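Worked Example 4.2. Consider the chain below.
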Amino acid sequence: MPQTSRLASGRSAWRRALALSAATTLIVTSAPGCAPSPSPQANAANSGRQIDTRTPPGIRAQQTLDMLNSDWPIGPVGVGTLAAADKVESVQTTMEALWWDRPFALDGVDIGASVATLHLTSSYGARQDIRIHTDDGGWVDRFDLDTRAPTVKSWQDIDAVLSKTGARYSYQVAKVDDGHCNPVAGTNARESLPLASIFKLYVLHALAGAIKNGTVSWDDQLTVTDKSRAVGSSGLALPAGPTSRFARPPRR
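Applying the procedure from the previous section yields the following structure tokens:
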């Protein structure tokens, strides 16, 4: 009987080991198929550098980088897990503006007593430093952004900087002499490209003319629509409906 008992016990242990081995193999082989693959943006921002997260500033630096490189928009709930309560709004405003330029590559990080400075490069090549200060509770109570201006000493430097952005661009610099416009420098000057923000100047110019001509009044109500609020401007927080001045758009 003792021998039979030991044999049964040995078989039972062997079965448990086999089952555990099979389960482990199943988990290992199934995990890659179940886990989502890293997004191209995350891959693009991965420079192989690591942030030491053994201190509160290091933890907040890593959290900041993760939030900026995430596809989830920046919002008060997420920022509320990062910043002190009275700093959520200001930190959110800064991070929202940065988020559109993702992914960010980590060039380096400096960590000191209650402070960490992230050295980042945006998707279009801008070099930016984010200085994060934490309070006694480990919450971010200062969040400062500094964009390092590129070194430009020649027209060639301008092309070098612009080409790093990966964007299509064109420009021309000219000198007006005796009423004649003489080109001095430029790239792709014959290529016509849309100039996004300059359209605002056209609208403002037309609006000024309409007011001068009396077709628009300062007392007109501005109708804000959901469509006009969906153009990516984080600063347009007005509700839809007639809430401000100038309801009628200027006619050109």
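The first strand starts at residue 105 and ends at 112. Residues 2-34 form the longest helix (33 residues). Compare this with Example 4.1 before moving on.
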